[in-house]
Protein backbone atom coordinates (compact mmCIF):
# COMPACT_ATOMS: atom_id res chain seq x y z
CA UNK A 1 0.00 0.00 0.00
CA UNK A 2 1.40 3.42 -0.91
CA UNK A 3 2.00 5.83 1.95
CA UNK A 4 -0.64 8.57 2.15
CA UNK A 5 0.12 10.28 5.50
CA UNK A 6 3.35 11.15 7.31
CA UNK A 7 3.28 10.81 11.10
CA UNK A 8 5.78 13.11 12.80
CA UNK A 9 7.23 12.63 16.30
CA UNK A 10 5.70 9.20 16.87
CA UNK A 11 6.68 7.10 19.87
CA UNK A 12 9.10 4.24 19.28
CA UNK A 13 6.26 1.78 19.99
CA UNK A 14 3.63 3.82 18.11
CA UNK A 15 0.40 2.29 16.84
CA UNK A 16 1.01 4.17 13.58
CA UNK A 17 3.80 1.72 12.73
CA UNK A 18 1.11 -0.94 12.27
CA UNK A 19 -0.83 1.22 9.80
CA UNK A 20 0.45 0.55 6.25
CA UNK A 21 -0.66 3.94 4.88
CA UNK A 22 1.56 5.80 7.38
CA UNK A 23 5.13 6.98 6.79
CA UNK A 24 6.22 7.12 10.43
CA UNK A 25 8.93 9.47 11.68
CA UNK A 26 10.04 8.74 15.24
CA UNK A 27 13.10 9.84 17.20
CA UNK A 28 15.39 7.43 15.33
CA UNK A 29 14.24 8.67 11.93
CA UNK A 30 14.35 12.31 13.09
CA UNK A 31 11.07 13.94 12.13
CA UNK A 32 12.82 17.32 11.73
CA UNK A 33 14.21 15.97 8.46
CA UNK A 34 10.74 15.45 6.97
CA UNK A 35 10.50 17.48 3.76
CA UNK A 36 7.92 15.43 1.87
CA UNK A 37 4.55 16.47 0.54
CA UNK A 38 2.25 14.00 2.29
CA UNK A 39 -0.25 15.50 4.73
CA UNK A 40 0.91 15.01 8.30
CA UNK A 41 -0.30 13.89 11.69
CA UNK A 42 2.06 15.59 14.16
CA UNK A 43 2.52 14.59 17.80
CA UNK A 44 5.37 16.89 18.90
CA UNK A 45 6.58 16.71 22.51
CA UNK A 46 4.36 18.82 24.75
CA UNK A 47 6.08 18.78 28.12
CA UNK A 48 7.55 22.28 27.70
CA UNK A 49 4.27 23.73 26.40
CA UNK A 50 1.80 22.44 28.98
CA UNK A 51 0.58 23.45 32.39
CA UNK A 52 3.43 21.59 34.12
CA UNK A 53 6.25 22.89 31.91
CA UNK A 54 7.97 24.34 34.97
CA UNK A 55 8.57 20.77 36.22
CA UNK A 56 10.20 19.55 33.00
CA UNK A 57 13.94 19.01 32.69
CA UNK A 58 13.78 18.80 28.87
CA UNK A 59 16.11 21.14 26.97
CA UNK A 60 14.40 24.35 25.81
CA UNK A 61 15.44 23.46 22.24
CA UNK A 62 12.74 20.75 22.31
CA UNK A 63 10.15 23.52 21.95
CA UNK A 64 11.25 23.96 18.33
CA UNK A 65 9.80 20.54 17.48
CA UNK A 66 6.26 21.84 18.05
CA UNK A 67 6.96 24.99 16.04
CA UNK A 68 8.33 22.81 13.23
CA UNK A 69 5.15 20.71 13.39
CA UNK A 70 2.91 23.76 13.00
CA UNK A 71 4.91 24.85 9.94
CA UNK A 72 4.63 21.36 8.40
CA UNK A 73 0.87 21.15 8.99
CA UNK A 74 0.48 24.57 7.40
CA UNK A 75 2.79 23.66 4.50
CA UNK A 76 1.31 20.31 3.42
CA UNK A 77 -1.96 20.06 5.36
CA UNK A 78 -2.79 17.77 8.23
CA UNK A 79 -3.39 17.82 11.94
CA UNK A 80 -1.28 18.62 15.01
CA UNK A 81 -2.21 17.17 18.41
CA UNK A 82 -1.30 18.76 21.76
CA UNK A 83 -2.90 18.80 25.22
CA UNK A 84 -5.53 21.28 26.25
CA UNK A 85 -3.78 24.29 27.75
CA UNK A 86 -0.77 24.11 25.42
CA UNK A 87 0.88 27.53 25.10
CA UNK A 88 1.86 26.65 21.51
CA UNK A 89 -1.43 28.12 20.24
CA UNK A 90 -0.72 31.56 21.69
CA UNK A 91 2.91 31.64 20.61
CA UNK A 92 2.18 30.58 17.03
CA UNK A 93 -0.98 32.68 16.68
CA UNK A 94 -3.17 29.65 16.05
CA UNK A 95 -6.96 29.99 16.24
CA UNK A 96 -8.62 29.20 19.57
CA UNK A 97 -10.94 26.20 19.91
CA UNK A 98 -13.77 26.16 17.38
CA UNK A 99 -12.24 29.16 15.56
CA UNK A 100 -10.76 29.35 12.06
CA UNK A 101 -8.08 31.44 10.39
CA UNK A 102 -6.89 31.53 6.77
CA UNK A 103 -4.84 28.33 7.18
CA UNK A 104 -6.83 26.14 9.53
CA UNK A 105 -8.94 25.70 12.63
CA UNK A 106 -8.73 24.31 16.15
CA UNK A 107 -10.88 21.64 17.77
CA UNK A 108 -10.90 20.47 21.39
CA UNK A 109 -11.80 16.82 21.90
CA UNK A 110 -11.60 14.26 24.71
CA UNK A 111 -9.55 11.23 23.69
CA UNK A 112 -11.97 9.08 25.69
CA UNK A 113 -14.23 9.22 22.61
CA UNK A 114 -11.64 6.90 21.02
CA UNK A 115 -11.24 4.58 24.02
CA UNK A 116 -8.57 6.38 26.04
CA UNK A 117 -9.16 5.44 29.71
CA UNK A 118 -9.01 9.12 30.75
CA UNK A 119 -10.82 12.11 29.25
CA UNK A 120 -7.43 13.53 28.11
CA UNK A 121 -8.68 16.80 26.66
CA UNK A 122 -6.77 17.48 23.46
CA UNK A 123 -6.35 20.41 21.08
CA UNK A 124 -6.17 19.68 17.36
CA UNK A 125 -4.92 22.23 14.86
CA UNK A 126 -6.14 21.20 11.41
CA UNK A 127 -4.93 22.82 8.18
CA UNK A 128 -6.05 22.06 4.65
CA UNK A 129 -9.78 21.45 5.06
CA UNK A 130 -12.88 23.28 6.17
CA UNK A 131 -14.20 22.68 9.67
CA UNK A 132 -17.49 21.30 8.33
CA UNK A 133 -15.59 18.55 6.45
CA UNK A 134 -14.07 17.01 9.58
CA UNK A 135 -14.96 13.29 9.86
CA UNK A 136 -17.76 12.80 12.34
CA UNK A 137 -17.47 10.82 15.55
CA UNK A 138 -20.51 8.53 15.90
CA UNK A 139 -22.78 9.57 18.77
CA UNK A 140 -22.79 6.00 20.10
CA UNK A 141 -19.01 6.20 20.42
CA UNK A 142 -19.25 9.43 22.41
CA UNK A 143 -21.93 8.03 24.72
CA UNK A 144 -20.36 4.65 25.47
CA UNK A 145 -16.66 5.57 25.59
CA UNK A 146 -16.65 7.43 28.90
CA UNK A 147 -13.47 7.93 30.97
CA UNK A 148 -12.68 5.30 33.60
CA UNK A 149 -9.32 6.63 34.84
CA UNK A 150 -7.55 9.85 35.77
CA UNK A 151 -4.35 11.50 34.61
CA UNK A 152 -2.48 12.99 37.55
CA UNK A 153 1.10 13.79 38.47
CA UNK A 154 0.31 13.33 42.15
CA UNK A 155 -2.17 10.90 43.62
CA UNK A 156 -2.27 12.62 47.00
CA UNK A 157 -5.84 13.23 48.04
CA UNK A 158 -7.23 11.47 44.97
CA UNK A 159 -8.91 8.11 44.77
CA UNK A 160 -9.65 5.99 41.72
CA UNK A 161 -7.79 4.47 38.85
CA UNK A 162 -4.85 6.28 37.28
CA UNK A 163 -3.26 6.08 33.84
CA UNK A 164 0.30 4.87 33.58
CA UNK A 165 2.89 7.09 31.91
CA UNK A 166 2.68 4.89 28.81
CA UNK A 167 -1.11 5.32 28.70
CA UNK A 168 -0.72 9.08 29.10
CA UNK A 169 1.70 9.25 26.15
CA UNK A 170 0.26 6.65 23.76
CA UNK A 171 -2.33 7.40 21.09
CA UNK A 172 -5.35 5.07 21.22
CA UNK A 173 -5.65 3.05 18.00
CA UNK A 174 -9.11 4.40 17.15
CA UNK A 175 -7.90 7.98 17.67
CA UNK A 176 -4.87 7.34 15.44
CA UNK A 177 -7.14 5.97 12.71
CA UNK A 178 -9.39 9.04 12.98
CA UNK A 179 -6.42 11.45 12.86
CA UNK A 180 -5.11 9.68 9.74
CA UNK A 181 -8.58 9.96 8.17
CA UNK A 182 -8.53 13.71 8.93
CA UNK A 183 -5.06 14.15 7.43
CA UNK A 184 -6.04 12.27 4.26
CA UNK A 185 -8.74 14.87 3.56
CA UNK A 186 -6.36 17.79 4.07
CA UNK A 187 -4.73 19.49 1.12
CA UNK A 188 -1.63 21.62 0.75
CA UNK A 189 -2.27 25.27 1.66
CA UNK A 190 0.99 27.16 1.11
> What is the approximate shape?
globular
Strand order, sheet with most strands? 2-1-3-4-6-5
- In helices, the fraction of residues equals 10-25%
Strand content: 15-25%
**Total of DSSP H or I helical runs spanning 4+ residues:** 5
Strand tally: 6
Mean pLDDT: 83
Q: Helices and strands, in N-to-C order? A: EEEHEHEEHHH
Q: How would you concisely characterize the structure shown here?
A:
It is built from 5 helices and 6 strands; from the N terminus they run E-E-E-H-E-H-E-E-H-H-H. It has helices at residues 63-76, 88-92, 139-144, 165-169, 173-185; strands at residues 5-10, 22-26, 40-42, 78-83, 104-110, 121-127. With 190 residues, the protein is an alpha/beta fold.
Explain this structure to me?
The chain has a six-stranded mixed β-sheet with strand order 2-1-3-4-6-5, sandwiched between helices. The longest helix is centred in the middle third of the chain and has 14 residues, at 63-76. 23% of the residues lie in helices and 18% in strands. The chain has one domain. With 190 residues, it is of the alpha/beta class. The chain has helices at 63-76, 88-92, 139-144, 165-169, 173-185, and strands at 5-10, 22-26, 40-42, 78-83, 104-110, 121-127. The two termini are 27 Å apart. The protein has five helices and six strands; from the N terminus they run βββαβαββααα. Strand 3, helix 1 (63-76) and strand 4 form a beta-alpha-beta unit.
Amino acid sequence: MPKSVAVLFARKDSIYKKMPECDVWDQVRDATKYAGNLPVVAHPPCRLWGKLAHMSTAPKSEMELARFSVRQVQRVGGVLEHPEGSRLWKEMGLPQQWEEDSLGFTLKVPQSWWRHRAAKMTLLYVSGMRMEDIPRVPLIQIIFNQPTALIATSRRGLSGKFCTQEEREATPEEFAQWLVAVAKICRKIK
